[in-house]
Amino acid sequence: MAASVTGAAPAPAASPTPLDRVIPAPASVAPGGSPYRITRGTQIRVDGSRETRGVGEYLARVLRPSTGYRLPVTAQGAGGIRLRLANGPFGSEGYRLDSGRHGVTITAARPAGLFHGVQTLRQLLPTAVESDSVQPGPWLVAGGTITDTPRYGWRGAMLDVSRHFFTVDQVKRYIDQLALYKINKLHLHLSDDQGWRIAIDSWPRLATHGGSTEVGGGPGGYYTKADYKEIVRYAASRYLEVVPEIDMPGHTNAALASYAELNCDGVAPPLYTGTEVGFSSLCVGKEITYDFVDDVIRELAALTPGRYLHIGGDEAHSTSHEDYVTFMDRVQPIIAKYGKTVVGWHQLTGATPAKGALAQYWGLDGTSAEEKERVAEAARNGTGVILSPADRVYLDMKYTKETPLGLSWAGYVEVKRSYDWDPGAYLPGVPGGAVRGVEAPMWSETLENSGHIEFMAFPRLPGVAELGWSPAASHDWERYKVRLAAQAERWDALGIEWYRSPQVPWGAGGR
How far apart, in whole angstroms, are the C-alpha atoms of residue 319 and residue 282? Predict the structure, then answer.
């Protein structure tokens, strides 16, 4: 209806976010019926389990500041927002969200599914729900049903805390951002040439000396065991599993500088603050090397409740192929000895991956067919593959040549390029069942604070999350970029720094 000549057009009635507007795209959406409105009388209903109550309390903490409502978490009453565990075709992380006039119910077989359902609920509410002060609302959730399970079980993000050190609070901030998009693995790159970031009681100088600097010569830092446990605990509360990485036999200058006896010549090199790679190596022929590895893995495994431990293995240019194979043959059984499963960068396939090991592929579209085939052969022999192609999902690559942060050795990676590929068909000869998922690494040579991390992660990270979660048939750039544009107001409300890619039709809400 046209506006009257004498007055302004009436403000449009509030309408809820459509069920299919969220990221990652749900597996199945059936809109219909009346929306639910969160009001002052809304309760969050949970069953008797500690985990369900924990998810309910998390949801309440998200909603209370912006709505101004009490939103009690209770096992009593009817209506409102209900979180329930029940048997169903949800797997370990799937859920169903039912919304109608009388309430919203999220059902899952496991607490992780409830938590992921809560993230969907957040995105169905107005973006002002992320504000830390009371907003006017109304708080409407569209009517209908979402049934959702992930495509892959590994949906990861790696944070390099070695080139530049990030505090516990900075890591927690990134964890919260990852959780919003149903990321379930936090891979922490804890050691490199420029810094060792985890306290090891049996080799204390690794942290106190090896952790005392970073790229550019800053003060560096390291996590005490209590710090690391707090990161693990916080990640678990957001249903992320921490995968710690000790990179070896290369990328080890911080360790070599800390202990002379780890060097073949018995001479400790100086600490390193540059960005070149490939010059360092543990001494493969010395028995003390394996005592060192055993001690480090033993202490780190004891702190890490998750299944995996990453042993790096990339860019070992100063290690001969023969020595590399010898080293991996000695080290992989140590991981198993302490109850963990090996993950390594895909160069691990140049040796013999342990039974059940995962290889993380970080090559390029243009990587040689020979190298790709080596990964494919390992995959056909039982090695799982995590896909992190550097010219697709390395979040530290510049968007364009004008990007003030990041590197460009793998090329420029704009938002469309990071999204527009299929993990299931990326590597020729790799069986579909061998692909365990995707991971978006964030190397930190040029990144020094949370704002830098966020600028490089957003808007690319949500697309990687969608590649890992959503059905392949739902991947469509033209539709995705519209959903992505709608996220900008949410990022603003959360105080997230982000890059305004010209490839995305940002609305008036995006800055």
Answer: 8
- Residue 345 scores a pLDDT above 60: yes
479: helix, strand or coil: helix
Q: Which residue has the tokens 């500690």?
A: 50
Q: Are the beta carbons of 351 and 325 closer than 8 angstroms?
A: yes
* Cα dihedral 459/465/467/468 (nearest 10): 170
Q: What is the pLDDT of residue 8?
A: 39
Residue 313 gets which letter from DSSP? -
CA distance 216 to 385: 34
Residue 477: name the closest of 436, 417, 427 by CA.
417
Tell me the C-alpha to C-alpha distance, in Å, between residue 71 and each of 47, 65, 310, 322. 16, 11, 41, 62
Helix (H, G, I), strand (E, B) or coil at 196: strand
Instruction: Supply the pTM of this predicted model.
Output: 0.96
For 294-317, what is the mean pLDDT?
A: 98
Kindly name the residue from 315, 371, 373, 497 that is annotated as catalytic: 315
Q: Identify whether the C-beta of residue 62 lies closer than 8 Å to the C-beta of residue 179.
A: no
Q: Report which secondary-structure segment, H or E, holds 484.
A: helix 477-485
Find, among 362, 215, 201, the residue nearest to 295 by Cα.
201
The residue among 121, 130, 46 whose CA lies nearest residue 83 is: 46
What is the distance between the alpha carbons of residues 90 and 226, in angstroms, rounded to a whole number?
35
Which residue shows structure tokens 């830092």?
221
The single-letter code of the amino acid at 113 is G
d(CA 38, CA 42): 6
CB atoms within 10 A of CB 499: 19
- Residue that wins the pLDDT comparison between 7 and 496: 496
Q: Mean pLDDT across the chain, nearest whole number?
A: 96
pLDDT in tens, 219-261: 999 999 999 999 999 999 999 999 999 999 999 999 999 999 9
Number of helices (H), then strands (E), in the chain: 15, 19
402 annotated active-site:
no
Q: In which residue are the tokens 């299944």 written? A: 307
Task: Answer whether residue 77 shows pLDDT above 50.
Answer: yes
Report the candidate in 390, 313, 392, 303 with the shortest Cα–Cα distance to residue 346.
Answer: 313
What are 208-217's pLDDT values in tens digits? 999 999 999 9
CB of 185 closer than 8 Å to CB of 157: yes
CA neighbor of 314 nearest in space, from 374, 377, 247: 247
Per DSSP, the three-state class of 29 is strand
